Amino acid sequence: MANLTDLTIAEAQAGLAQGEFSSKEITEAHITAIEAARDLNAFVTETPERALADAEASDKRRAEGEVGALDGLPIAIKDLFCTKGVKSTASSHMLEGFIPPYESSVTAKMVDAGMVMLGKTNLDEFAMGSSNETSYFGPVINPWKRNSDDQTLVPGGSSGGSASAVAARLCLGATGTDTGGSIRQPASFCGIVGMKPTYGRCSRWGIVAFASSLDQAGPMTRTVRDAAIMLQSMVGFDPKDTTSSEMPIPDFQAMLGQDIKGLKIGIPSEYRVEGTDPEILALWDQGIKWLEDAGAEAVEVSLPRTKYALPAYYIIAPAEASSNLARYDGMRYGLRAEGDSLSEVYENTRAEGFGNEVRRRILMGTYVLSAGYYDAYYIKAQKVRKLIADEFSAAFETVDAILTPAVPSAAFAHGEKSDDLLAMYLNDVMTVPASLAGLPGISVPAGLSSDGLPLGLQLITKAFDEETLFRVADVLEQSAGFTARPGEKA
Amino acid sequence: MEDGDSRAVGITRIHLEQDAGKSIHDMDPSSTYVDLNRSGITLMEIVSEPDLRSGEEAAAYLTKLRAILRYLGTCDGNMEQGSMRCDANVSVRKLGDELGTRCEIKNVNSIRFVAQAIEYEARRQIEVIEDGGTIAQQTRLFDANKGVTRSMRSKEEAHDYRYFPDPDLLPVNLSEEFVEEIRRTLPELPDDKKQRFVDELGLSGYDADVLVAERAIAEYFEEAAEGQDAKTVANWVTSDLFGYLNKEDLEITDSPVAAKQLGALVGLISDGTISGRIARDVFAEMCATSKDPAVVVEEKGLKQVSDTGELEAIVDEAIAKGTAQVEQYKSGNEKIIGWFVGQVMQATKGQANPQMVNEILRKKLSE
Question: Which of these, A286, A313, A322, A314, lies nearest to A444 by C-alpha position?
Fold first, then answer.
């Protein structure tokens, strides 16, 4: 029998269906793998007992012939999702002891589909970060290493624990959330597939809010098909989230294995951002060639306002965060620090509960929303956001998908960018524009750097056209034939 | 307005909130308690333009606004119970000048207090300015016991709420059809109702005003007036019924006499079953027992005597008794007929049909 932790979700589904192994067996294999890989710090909370109970229940259902779409599959959940009865921390001291009395809508759907939950994965505190170094529970380690040295590398962020766990074969797939690139960037750093659906596809109810107009859940897997399978069990209208969409849900897998002849792929030159690793630009060119070889037509598109996306994002996201995080006042749930007056309780709680990056963003958000600055910053950023969305809309009048790099660089070492905030924020420069426009995007591992690190390419389509996204991503994945695994130095 | 004038008051905007709950700081020396009992209750804030010039105008505006809200059923307007509150912004200026710096009086909980607070605050500001001072923008509270306003916080301490559009709530696009549908299904508002009462029911403007002032009163009146003479019903509601309710300190919704019963009482007068005077006795009995007027009339034997033969006999007796009065009548003092009517009423305990008594008397006295 093949190593059970090496299987894709599709293979595991087939194996379970054919009775080659039980959910209990594949779950145990993953629990063992998680225990052996604790130095990665990918999990905040492991839930092996819950996982085994889930697995046994799944095997029982299977024996009775009633299985869901994710039945018996060991999956990890980013610790930003509230899970009933299981600690949900957002990797913050503020929520260190928080056990939600309810389940997020997305994970509830996955539970209904039969998922086995292995545990809650580490992330940047409140999903604010691009390296998973802001977590209160310590940094996550990327299972990949450079050929040239033995330094530990960051997995990207904020869904760093999920990315690391999927890459290290600690789970078949994991949920992530993406506000400005938090699924796609770590997926690229860890050599896996990371997919952010259209804003509104997944309910945000029960996901700890960072920036409500941007946050969106998505799957992190080792193949495009696995992402399609997982996404199918995550999406759907939810009356508890007013921004959740009532658009019909297509069968995401149905588009896989189709050709892309005649599709037009937009290539925006504005993504040749200064400072981007030349190897990434070369990989991008290679990606264009792969899609052309598969029968698509590469078309130059212009998205001239791309350069304003990152500044606008760092106004809008902190503004919303400053409002969303106002609820952590020590009164209702989470940490409470004592004080002699109400204000002191507030101040002490927030000073103790929030880490530096979170405080920085609250301050930025508070600043841009303050009387006197609101028009110059917040309103202006919203206008920029609209223009960026309009540019995408215009581009999608002529092209079916847009291909860009997913990140400007490969994974970096711990501490390498901690002192350079702008360099850190630049990590999201490729992913933020689609976030601002609410568009679906996917990062597909497409090659290795000369130093042996995975690099991803990003595809973007128009809103609610995940079908085309998966269709092109599937071809890109086939063409790239990415089979490298972490821990195998070339 | 009281003097019959009207003012147009612009509405700047209306916004909706949900009550978030409140902190209670004064129940314990070192702890703050959180009261979530009203959490989630919807709140509508109506911001109006600076179109009002006195406490009296503000009171009239609030009264009208409250009546409209009650007609719409969107708020019970009960200020004592906190379902409606007023923040009054007050500034003073010399005639024709720009509006002065304003102070906001927060959370006033009765229309009377709003008028008092505004008048006090305007005088205070005038005094400050006439003493050579300037008005500092601030938030003030009205102390109803002392009838004064006092400072709560100054602008320097004012909160910067950092409002921005809530990304969790999408913009709501209301279609023309929806707006039209709402417009079509709006209940009749007080001004329209008043106009209809005057035009179609022939009520006086004053009576119509009184009757439409509150939705519950208007509804009571309309139910009572159904199929009856509207003016008579209006008189009964505004005089006898209001008199009784005021005396007993009751709301119209607690009236022991149901609208239909009052209508039936007026019906008994109109069809001659009882006289207006007897009706007052019947009404008093109805107030005490909530019985139907027909039942009261029956039980107490108050039915009007309208039998011509019976009345003629009684009239004859009265004429026989009053030979001197007959002489006066014949010599031109027609007013003396009242004396005969009195006699007949006395003899019938007031139950004689007064119109018939008059007719018979005139006939017989002219013989």
Answer: A286
* Active-site residue (options: A158, A159, A164, A409): A158
- In angstroms, what separates the C-alpha of A378 from chain B's closest C-alpha? 9
Helix (H, G, I), strand (E, B) or coil at B117: helix
Strands (E), B181-333: none
DSSP-based three-state secondary structure for B131: coil
Contact A354, A94 (CB under 8 A): yes
Domains by residue range for chain B, with CATH = 11-157 (no CATH), 188-300 (no CATH), 308-366 (1.10.10.410)
Packing angle between helix B293-300 and helix B259-270, nearest 10 degrees? 60
Asked if the Cβ–Cβ distance from A371 to B162 is below 8 Å, we say yes
Structure tokens at B328: 């006066």
ipTM over 0.85: no
- Cβ–Cβ < 8 Å for A191, A165: no
3-state SS, residue B330: helix
- Using the structure block, give the residue that is written with the tokens 């209508």: B263
Annotated catalytic residue A135: no
Q: How many CB atoms lie within 10 A of CB B254?
A: 9
CB half-sphere exposure, A99, CA atoms < 13 A: 3
* Six-digit token string for B162: 């950092």
Q: How far apart are CA A478 and CA A302, in angstroms?
A: 28
Averaged over successive runs of 10 residues, the pLDDT of chain B (367 residues) comes to 83 90 82 86 94 94 92 89 92 92 92 96 95 91 90 70 88 93 93 93 91 91 94 94 93 93 92 84 92 88 76 84 84 84 83 82 81
Q: Is B167 on the interface with A (CB under 8 A)?
A: yes
Compute how many other C-beta atoms are within 10 angstroms of the C-beta atom of residue B357.
23
Phi-psi region of B176 (alpha: psi -120 to 50; beta: other; left: phi over 0): alpha
Distance from CA of B177 to the nearest CA of A (A): 22
**What dihedral angle (degrees, nearest 10) is formed by the CA atoms of A156, A160, A165, A171?**
-120
CA distance B160 to chain A (A): 7
Output the pTM of the full model.
0.81
Interhelix angle A278-293/A466-480, rounded to 10 degrees, is: 100
Are A384 and A340 in contact, with CB atoms under 8 Å apart? no
Is some CB atom of chain A closer than 8 A to the CB atom of B168?
yes
Decide if A490 contacts A452 (C-beta within 8 A): yes
A91 counts as catalytic: no
A371 touches chain B (CB under 8 A): yes
The dihedral formed by the CA atoms of A468, A469, A471 and A476, expressed in degrees to the nearest 10: 140
Determine if the peptide bond prior to B239 is cis (ω within 30°).
no
- Please name the helix (run of DSSP H) or strand (run of DSSP E) that holds residue B360, with its range, or none: helix B354-366
Position of tokens 């492991």? Answer: A46
Choose among A241, A322, A370: nearest Cβ to B160: A370
Chain B CB within 8 Å of residue A69 CB: no
Nearest Cα to A484, choosing from A190, A227, A171?
A190
Lookup result for tokens 């303050």: A370
Report the C-alpha gap between A281 and A291 in whole angstroms.
16
Q: What six digits make up the tokens of A149?
A: 């040295």
Cβ-based contacts under 8 A for chains A and B:
35
B95 — contact with chain A (CB < 8 Å)?
no
Whole-number pLDDT of residue B157: 58
Distances in Å between the alpha carbon of B120 and those of A339, B111, B135, B155? 41, 14, 14, 21
- Catalytic (active site) residue A158: yes
Name the CATH topology of A4-259: Amidase signature (AS) enzymes (3.90.1300)
CB-closest option in B32, B34, B162 to A370: B162
Q: Identify from B30, B159, B164 which residue to disrupt to test chain A contact, counting A C-beta atoms within 10 A and taking the largest count.
A: B164
How far is it, in rounded angstroms, from Cα B189 to Cα A432? 52
